[in-house]
Amino acid sequence: MNKNKLNALLSLVDDPNLEILQEVEKELIEFPISIIPQLEDAWLESKNSLFQERIELIINKIQFTHVKKEIIAWGKTNAPKLIDGAILVNKSYNPNLLIDPILKVIQKIKQDVRLEINDQLTALEKVKVLNHFFYNIHNYQPLSPTKPTNWDGDISTVLAQKQGNYIILAIIYAGIAQELDIPIYGIHLPDSVLLCYIDKKNNEDNNSPDILFYINPIDKGNIFGRKELESIMLNKNIENRPRYFEPTSNPSLIKRLVKHEISVYKKLKLNSYLPNFKELYKSI
């Protein structure tokens, strides 16, 4: 890192010319995230409130830019993990998020389930074991969609509170399943987040995988078939399209979470967060 360049840029942070400020911000944002402690030191040493205010904004932009790059890289991996995606969404507005507590909770649920499943169990039996631990032992419950909060999609808070919106619960449930090699994925159905169990043994055609059954993650993992899904679609006035019965990718499910966050933050009039959410949505 060029310290002389950094000092030169910092000397221009409180410049009254907004065009100069924009150029300074643009250059500082390109610095690695390791620059933040030095920016914080500059904030502490300064008595200029305008300088401090602008440094805070620049730090926030650097942190968000870093998370955005992380989520773009996550989406390009061969098998992006749902839990990791949810953590990155959480980090986009809480850059100081502690990740270890999240992973410890996930690991505990996985350990409990792993002790009770084996290759001799049927797909149905495996899901029943997962349901038992996720809903009955660890007691995760959905929150009412009519009472949105600014935390019901945060994986960190949801794991601590054992409550969350329907999307984050589906993500955590499917994420745990996938890490246990249980092939549960989201489906394309709009305005709902339901899951499906893919038949890996007969899944030779990746473009049209066989689905054994569907799962409702906000109804204690209730299992149902294609006819029941057709009834759900009919009751919700959703057009019956073949793609709505098929699995979706993990990035698509994370994108649904961000879309939901945009909707919730609009309702709660927390508008300062919306630009970042919208930018994150486009990045996935």
Q: What structural category do the secondary elements indicate?
A: alpha+beta
Strand content: 5-15%
Give the rounded overall mean pLDDT.
92
Low-confidence sequence ranges: none
Q: How would a textbook summarize the main sheet? A: 4 strands, antiparallel
Number of strand elements: 6
Write down the domain tally: 2
Q: How would you sum up the global shape?
A: elongated
Oligomer: single chain
**Helicity level, as a percent range?**
40-55%
What topology, given as strand order, has the largest sheet?
3-4-5-6
The H-and-E topology, N to C, reads as: HHHHHHHEHEHEEEEHHH
Give the radius of gyration.
22 Å
Total count of helical runs of at least 4 residues: 12
Q: Give the distance, in angstroms, between the N- and C-terminal Cα atoms.
A: 29 Å
Pfam family, one: Transglut_core2
InterPro entries: SirB1_N (IPR032698)
Family: Belongs to the UPF0162 family.
Protein name: Protein SirB1 N-terminal domain-containing protein
Summary?
The chain contains 12 helices and 6 strands. By secondary structure, the protein is of the alpha+beta class.
Please characterize this protein's 3D structure.
This protein is of the alpha+beta class and 284 residues long. It folds into 2 domains: 73 residues, no CATH class; 202 residues, no CATH class. It is built from 12 helices and 6 strands. The strands form 2 sheets. Strands 3-4-5-6 form a 4-stranded antiparallel beta sheet. A two-stranded parallel sheet has the order 1-2. Helix 4 runs antiparallel to helix 5 and helix 5 packs parallel to helix 11. InterPro entries: SirB1_N. Belongs to the UPF0162 family. This is Protein SirB1 N-terminal domain-containing protein.
